[in-house]
């Protein structure tokens, strides 16, 4: 056997759903289980990489043999990811990051009073986009290979290519979350992987671990060419 595809590489993977607090006992989150991110972490570890896993809310047990950084909100994840960008050869954003958070987090539990209650939300920073902007503004430095995900319900190619360009990513893995066995909280996925040239590969219904291995094989080949 030859050398492992990711030996000597340092990779950062985000997984799980961010938690956006409303008050001490209530929050907004999403259905991400962390399974896709954990499969990517396990596959990278087994391909020889030194793995950092930035992990938001999940009920799954994280894999062994990787460094785990626990975070709660999108803002926490933003800090954890953007804090040390030049230390990584690859960054994969499999987490489902909340696009919005409550404008203010109440210190005390909100009491039941009026018939109607409205919650004001503000936009969270886009972490993937921040990574892409950092790359564009640091051309001379060691740059991470950036892989984003896209959870869509149709028009995969259009949205994936738009995200790839807007967020300056090297690959976008698009899952059609309206398909059986794809996306959130299942052990399988159906994805199409896009690069700057368009569709790179479609992976039919497969275990998330199999999908993860294929993503890393494609990434490793492109990282060597860079
Ligand atoms: O965790 P599982 O249950 O296994 O489910 C896996 C998954 C469906 C969550 C995963 O495969 C996936 O698609 N993750 C990304 C979901 C998502 O947030 O997609 P998006 O289209 O909203 O975001 C596009 C990309 O931008 C993602 O890489 C996301 O991490 C990133 N993003 C989004 C918003 C934000 N504020 N910051 C970001 O970095």
From TrEMBL:
Keywords recorded for this protein, A-Z: Decarboxylase, Flavoprotein, FMN, Ligase, Lyase, Magnesium, Metal-binding, Multifunctional enzyme
Domain of life: Bacteria
Cofactor: Mg(2+); FMN
UniProt domain DNA/pantothenate metabolism flavoprotein C-terminal: residue ranges: 6-220
The EC number(s) this enzyme carries: 4.1.1.36, 6.3.2.5
Binding residue positions for CTP: 99, 109, 125-128, 149, 163, 167
GO MF, one example: phosphopantothenate--cysteine ligase activity
Pathway(s) this gene product operates in, as recorded in its UniProt entry: Cofactor biosynthesis; coenzyme A biosynthesis; CoA from (R)-pantothenate: step 3/5; Cofactor biosynthesis; coenzyme A biosynthesis; CoA from (R)-pantothenate: step 2/5
The keyword Ligase appears for this protein: yes
GO CC, any one term: phosphopantothenoylcysteine decarboxylase complex
UniProt-annotated stretches for the region Phosphopantothenate--cysteine ligase: 11-226
Bound cofactor: record note: Binds 1 FMN per subunit.
Reactions that this protein is recorded to catalyse: (R)-4'-phosphopantothenate + L-cysteine + CTP = N-[(R)-4-phosphopantothenoyl]-L-cysteine + CMP + diphosphate + H(+); N-[(R)-4-phosphopantothenoyl]-L-cysteine + H(+) = (R)-4'-phosphopantetheine + CO2
GO biological process, one term: pantothenate catabolic process
Function: Catalyzes two steps in the biosynthesis of coenzyme A. In the first step cysteine is conjugated to 4'-phosphopantothenate to form 4-phosphopantothenoylcysteine, in the latter compound is decarboxylated to form 4'-phosphopantotheine.
Similarity comment text for this entry: In the C-terminal section; belongs to the PPC synthetase family.
Protein name per the record: Coenzyme A biosynthesis bifunctional protein CoaBC
Native source species: Cohnella pontilimi
């Amino acid at each position: 056997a030859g050398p492992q595809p990711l030996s000597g590489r340092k990779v950062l993977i985000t997984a799980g759903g961010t938690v956006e607090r409303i008050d001490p006992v209530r929050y907004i989150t999403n259905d991400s289980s962390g399974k896709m991110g954990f499969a990517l972490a396990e596959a990278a570890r087994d391909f020889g990489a030194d793995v950092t896993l930035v992990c938001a809310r999940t009920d799954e047990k994280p894999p062994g043999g990787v460094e785990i950084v626990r975070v709660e909100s999108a803002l926490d994840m933003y800090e954890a990811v953007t804090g040390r960008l030049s230390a990584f050869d690859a960054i994969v954003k499999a987490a489902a990051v909340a696009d919005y958070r409550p404008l203010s987090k109440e210190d005390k539990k909100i009491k039941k009073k009026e018939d109607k209650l409205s919650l004001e939300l503000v936009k969270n920073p886009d972490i993937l986009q921040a990574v892409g902007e950092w790359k564009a503004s640091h051309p001379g430095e060691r740059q991470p290979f950036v892989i984003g995900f896209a959870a869509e319900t149709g028009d995969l190619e259009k949205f994936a290519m738009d995200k790839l360009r807007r967020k300056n990513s090297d690959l976008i893995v698009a899952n059609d979350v309206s398909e059986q066995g794809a996306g959130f909280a299942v052990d399988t996925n159906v994805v199409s992987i896009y690069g700057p040239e368009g569709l790179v590969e479609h992976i039919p219904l497969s275990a998330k671990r199999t999908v993860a291995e294929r993503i890393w094989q494609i990434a490793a080949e492109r990282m060597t060419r860079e």
